[in-house]
Design brief:
With 102 residues, this protein is α/β, with parallel strands linked by helices. Helix 1 runs parallel beside helix 2. 25% of the residues are buried.
Amino acid sequence: MMDFSKISTGEETEVRLTGRLEFTDHDRLRDIVELLDHPGTRRFIVALSELEFIDSAGLGMLLILQEEAEQRNVKMIVRGARGDVKRSIDLARLDEIITIEP
């Protein structure tokens, strides 16, 4: 099960995902998408350093978030993926669509 916390500072909103991002978490995606509407948000950071696992549905959710951010003219950055999560993101070549930072 995935959980998340949010930190907003001026034009930047950071969402820290923890646990496992899987198909069963698709309902939580709506809650994260709503954070894109935080007043003044220009950069949306998705921090994955505490995420332990991501499946193909979870990768799809990142793509949906990217699409939602683009519609709002918000720059989305995925940051801090490591281990199996980083390998999954690399294998899916998400860096061709989403800005990925170490």
